[in-house]
TrEMBL record:
UniProt key word rRNA-binding: no
Entry-linked SMART domains: WD40 (SM00320)
Pfam families recorded: TFIID_NTD2, WD40
Gene Ontology biological process terms from the UniProt entry: transcription initiation at RNA polymerase II promoter
Name the UniProt record assigns to this protein: Transcription initiation factor TFIID subunit 5
UniProt GO molecular function: RNA polymerase II general transcription initiation factor activity
Organism of this sequence: Anhinga anhinga (Anhinga)
Amino acid sequence: DRQTLVAVLQFLRRSNLRESEEILRREARLLGDDLGSTALSPAGAGVLGAPGGDADSAGGGEALLSRWSYTSIFASSFRLSYKLLLYANAFAVGGGIVVEDQPDVSAVLSAYNQQGDPTLYEEYYSGLKHFIECSLDCHRAELSQLFYPLFVHMYLELVYNQHESEAKSFFERFHGDQECYYQDDLRVLSSLTKKEHMKGNETMLDFRTSKFVLRISRDSYQLLKRHLQEKQNNQIWNIVQEHLYIDIFDGMPRSKQQIDAMVGSLAGEAKREANKAKVFFGLLKEPEFDVPLDDEDEEGENEEGKPKKKKPKKDSVGSKSKKQDPNAPPQNRIPLPELKDSDKLDKVMNMKEAARRVRLGPECLPSICFYTFLNAYQGLTAVDITDDSSMIVGGFADSTVRVWSVTPKKLRSVKTAADLSLIDKESDDVLERIMDEKTASELKILYGHSGPVYGTSFSPDRNYLLSCSEDGTVRLWSLQTFTCLVGYKGHNYPVWDTQFSPYGYYFVSGGHDRVARLWATDHYQPLRIFAGHLADVTCTRFHPNSNYIATGSADRTIRLWDVLNGNCVRIFTGHKGPIHSLAFSPNGRFLATGATDGRVLLWDIGHGLMVGELKGHTDTIYALRFSRDGEILASGSMDNTVCLWDAVKAFEDLETDDFTTATGHINLPENSQDVLLGTYMTKSTPVVHLHFTRRNLLLAAGAYSSQ
């Protein structure tokens, strides 16, 4: 208001801050001339005359924001500067320019300063509710998205201003109207009944610092704006401007089904801008080398009396990606380790196996071999299987890591240094001679962690094993000596998952501290820290080309991060519970995600769109895996079942035109039973891991539970 403005100008003059005074004078005139009758009420920052929410007014908001930040340094003794900043921030909401930061708790809470008559909050909310429920069907679904964030902010405002009885009454009257997938959040909210409770509460802070994103068509938004102006409902308008980010799009409003598919995360939907960056989802070109024919191959062919014409076919397997994929990243975009001779040998073996691979499909489903951990009283918490399916590892709640050989070949350690010095290093079988037969056994137990082991991952070359634990460390173990080589300390809280890159050397970890970290085996410190999730990072996955990492979180979103620069290039919302499993399709185009809501969601990475929803499980999905050729998707759940899905059918005929991409009008198939090929029950064993062998046999693992 004018008096405060004059007071600030006098203060600046007394302090000899002429330049700031000039800026403030200019801004005051700009506010008066360009923005019509603007009133900054003493109770809080809200624009009553011209609510700026359209995209074209956002530029002005940004300019205001940058200029005011300069003035506000000097005017800090007045509440005006805070109001002007809030005003500028609110002004930028609708258009897509919002300066996001992570302020400290007291600053965050101060935004809930008394803003209106506490007795009228119920009236305001029920008035808006009545308006939305009576609006046309096409707008009702979109505007109903406002109920939940407004409910939370109005409740928190009442609690912060110590109107405890009003807050309780408000909560009891309206909490039943909220969507079922917000029940867990509402349970946390109901425990915040005093101002003191809000100080250290993470949920509270998340809600306050990250603007809740709503995607609404321009028509619906104009309808809301007009209603709030006519009713002079400044209380709700202030909240819409300060705490919500309204992503306005031109076009038809979305249906209830389309909205329900996309909402449910802790901070609303992803902004459309978040999924616009280019992603190189193609595969890197494989190095070329010839695949020699084995003696046994030749014998096998002669026995059958067929001519030896298999070689070109085998060669074609080796050269499946000789042509550069147009969507692939440049080969040297991130430094990848050189192939060792043993790696090349393994690739040759892989190609030979691939030649004998079973082509899967609706008519040819894989056999499933289930590894049941019996009497696992230690509590099985993680499983991994090597790429060549020769070893299986279990992480346990008693802080041990146990490695089994699942082939007749036993696990052996390297001999001691004294014994190694006696070996002839030039002999052909030197790799055999260095192994100590006395140590041969089916099982090796690795001790070192001081808490439950939540994640395990074998390196592609089978020389190393990663494990992560509640103790906050990630450990790297040698599978030559079965000892711990390094403990990586970076997370301060439990680490929920870790995974090696498909090329080795790099690995990723994610934990309770809400960040994922990228490491290299020869660095003590992380190379990248991926921060952005609002809750624990529960699972991590490398893209097949190793240039990207997907993370799933308890904030009910999936993010895709660029390894090169650490940027978040995709945010996927739609799950209604914490994410617990991720799987990239072998061609790198698609991502499948599973969560506690029992749904598998399918995403097109290039377009940043949800393209499928698979319903068949009744409990948390802990394991997802595509077959080697990508025809079948297998999902394993806590409901003791493995489901097989027709991935080819799920991804065909995708509507990914520009309009869909721009507005998010996704049309998911009504019935996911069409792509469900089979459901397989275990006796009483939750499925915690799935793995397709090189020949497409499906291996599953879990611990038998007697309940």
